[in-house]
Amino acid sequence: MTRKMSKYISNFFAKANQNFNLGERFKAPHNPGSRILPSKTNKNDADYQMRIDAGEMVGTRRNIVLQVNSQAKATPLKEWIRKNKTHGKLATAYFDTAAEDPQKEAARVAEELQRKAKENV
């Protein structure tokens, strides 16, 4: 399952980087537990199969959480949900909202989330 899951994780981040300004999204104010991207619709949940949620703020650092959507279509993702539930965290990383270059910080966080997620499957 690891190799197949890795493909879906890579695809999610490729799509997210293409369709969203991650620096702006991660830096914007969010309540803990709220969705950062993609916006919550059945179509997005099925298309993206994963989501990024906002976690707690610690000083200027926001916890960023990667999770699998309950509407995920791919069998390996469905199996992961079955084992870990929909609120199971694939990966977490901290985004520094005071970073001088939010785009560079977002790229670092996205890379860390991707690496951790692949290690956790």
Structure, described:
Residues 101-121 are annotated as: Disordered. This protein has a four-stranded antiparallel β-sheet. 50% of the residues lie in helices and 23% in strands. The mean pLDDT is 94. The longest helix is centred in the C-terminal third of the chain and has 19 residues, at 102-120. With 121 residues, it is α+β, with helices and mostly antiparallel strands.
What's the short story on this structure?
This protein has 121 residues and is α+β, with helices and mostly antiparallel strands. The chain is 50% helix and 23% strand.
Main sheet characteristics: 4 strands, antiparallel
Strand order of the largest sheet: 1-2-3-4
Distance between the termini: 8 Å
**How many strands appear in the DSSP assignment?**
4
> Which class of secondary structure composition applies to the elements?
alpha+beta
The number of distinct helices, counting runs of at least 4 residues, comes to 5
> How many domains make up the coordinates?
1
Rounded average pLDDT: 94
**What is the radius of gyration computed over CA atoms, rounded to a whole number of angstroms?**
13 Å
- Spans of at least 5 consecutive residues whose pLDDT stays below 50 are none
Strand content: 15-25%
Helical coverage, percent range:
40-55%
**Overall spatial form:** globular
What is the helix/strand order?
A: HHEHEEHEH
Short key terms for the protein model shown above:
121 residues, alpha+beta, 4-stranded antiparallel β-sheet, 4 strands
